[in-house]
Amino acid sequence: MEKVIELKNVDKHFGTNHVLNKISLTINSGQLVGLIGPSGAGKSTLIAAMLGMLRLDGGQVRLLNSDMPNRSALQNIGYMAQNDALYGNLTGLENLSFFGKLMGLSRSVLTDKIHLVSQTVDLQDHLDLRVNQYSGGMKRRLSLAIALLSDAPLLILDEPTVGIDPELRIKIWQELDKLHQQGKTVLITTHVMSEIETVDRLLMLRDGHIIADNTPTFLEKQYQVTNIESVFIKAGERYENNSHI
Amino acid sequence: MRIIAIFKRIMTELRRDKRTLAIVFVAPLLILTLLFAILQNSSSVTARLGVYQVDQTIVNQLKKNDNLHLVSLKERKSAKESLMQYNLSAVITQKENQLTVTYQNADTSLTGIVKADLTKTVSGEQMSKLKSALAKVTKRTKPGRAISEINSGMTINENYIYRKSNSSLFISIAPVMVGFFVFFFVFLISGISLLHERTTGTLNRLLISPVKRYEIVSAYTLAYGTLAVLQTVIIVSYVFFVLGVQNQGSFVLVLIINIILALVALSLGLLVSTFAASEFQMIQFIPLLVVPQIFFSGIFNISGMNQIWQGVAKIMPLYYGDDALTNVIKKGASISGVWLDLVVLIGFAIILLVLNIVGLKRYRRV
Ligand SMILES: Nc1ncnc2c1ncn2[C@@H]1O[C@H](COP(=O)(O)OP(=O)(O)OP(=O)(O)O)[C@@H](O)[C@H]1O
Ligand SMILES: [Mg+2]
């Protein structure tokens, strides 16, 4: 198994807030990994660390066989930020083609890919609208389309399904499953526990530590519950109790 | 390739931001027109005007102007001698319908006073002629004669002792203003645009792609450089061709100086924007970084200041820009006369651009 993401003792403080406490973690190629944790736990910070966008207080990150930070490794990552970093004055199409060009896609490939990804996120009829006039969910979908554009072997998606209706959410997960079947590695964060039942591996971040790391079924058994939502709560409770002793 | 993509994106965004474009292109013209109107006439001082063999009607008309002190000259002398001997601002002589004015022109505001009063008087003279001619037309209905009388108006022929241009206070600060507007607007707009990119998170998003840091800075330079070229052409053309400031040097050289100055403003704006957390904070840098530069840029004469302040002037880009612009526009200097200024400005720009590229390391270290 090829290691796609490898963190060793990654450590990060924001002032007195110890957000990442010596985290070590390996993600192998082809895994579909869900990253969950309470709001403010540090999921986005962990992703920033993986991408080399964070000045670490300690530890190393290797991504796709390059030591991060590394500019050319970013070529092989489809990334979707938690905030919609889009150009409001440009249309959806212009945003897609701008980010596509940044990823180095040639014009001919780009046209096909834009057609494809805009259908995946159901935006094909709104591409000529300025992003300023998009709804919150439409912006999310456009951000996701941008992440899918470059056909990268590694996808890192920070809360891709926030503000997206159930119908489209199912469609997006079908697409993610398809990409997973094609052998791509996917790391996804979410607060929607029901949608994450199908991942290969669930990571739970809390207080700077990864307090749970296994398949969803294993974790459900371990905590003797029937869904991930309960795992989230039980694991949290147990962690709090242990840390108070 | 990526530079072009970013460049095109910035240009598209700019094109859609109609109000910013209006401000960039129209506001300087408005302010310059206002300045032009205010500074053309300075009415508090009086100018001494010598008259030699001029029609009494015209002399009487001229006497009505409070800001003129008329001196009748009796002897025939060269204009230069009369100007010296009687401490005059200008001398007028008449030969039939042709008035010849010689301006001493050391103090340009005095020249402006005489010029304004003279134009007023002569056109007033022509108006009264026109009226009487019209009266004659209605009385005698002999149009041919009347028209010839209208046509026989005064013409004014102007000479200058110092500098062969028509000068006013406006004209003396026009070069400074041209440089300032380009500097100010490019500084503000490029800075705010990068700031906006930072606060909306798109800069971070941009850097999570294989783009190189210098590609971002280059694209910004290219885009706002283009804007600066357009703005410069418009402002400079307006000042020269509409407001009538005479350019003694080359038009192209004026453009080149302004573009280099804009490059400094651009790189300074981009750099400063990294220290601002909001558009409002960006505005706060104006009194700190832009206003002092105006004071040292040639509106006031700094050669009398003490050494320390003269040193301060020399760290200000606008000081070099205006030195170059003034030399070209007013004294007709060629590139060989201003190359040192240009080298210093290019030096500023390069240092600031490099600092910008390094500064982006705050977001991504490679
Ligand atoms: N630039 C920063 N400066 C200071 N503190 C920060 C910074 N970025 C994040 N933090 C802090 O780090 C902690 C983790 O933030 P992070 O955004 O990683 O949380 P998250 O798990 O992604 O939360 P959410 O689920 O709400 O997105 C928070 O307490 C936040 O206040
Ligand atoms: Mg987050």
From TrEMBL, chain A:
Transmembrane segments: none annotated. SMART domains: AAA. It holds the Pfam family ABC_tran. Coiled coil: none annotated. InterPro entries: AAA+_ATPase, ABC_transporter-like_ATP-bd, ABC_transporter-like_CS, P-loop_NTPase. Residues 5-232 form the ABC transporter domain. GO terms for molecular function: ATP binding; ATP hydrolysis activity. Gene3D superfamilies: P-loop containing nucleotide triphosphate hydrolases. Keywords: ATP-binding, Nucleotide-binding. The keyword Phosphoprotein does not apply. PANTHER family: ABC TRANSPORTER G FAMILY MEMBER 20 ISOFORM X1, ATP-BINDING CASSETTE, SUB-FAMILY H, MEMBER 1. This is ABC transporter ATP-binding protein.
From TrEMBL, chain B:
It is found in: Cell membrane. It is a multi-pass membrane protein. The keyword Transit peptide does not apply. Residues 127-363 form the ABC transmembrane type-2 domain. Keywords: Cell membrane, Membrane, Transmembrane, Transmembrane helix, Transport. PANTHER family: MEMBRANE COMPONENT OF ABC TRANSPORTER YHHJ-RELATED, TRANSPORT PERMEASE PROTEIN. Belongs to the ABC-2 integral membrane protein family. This is ABC transporter permease. It comes from Leuconostoc pseudomesenteroides.
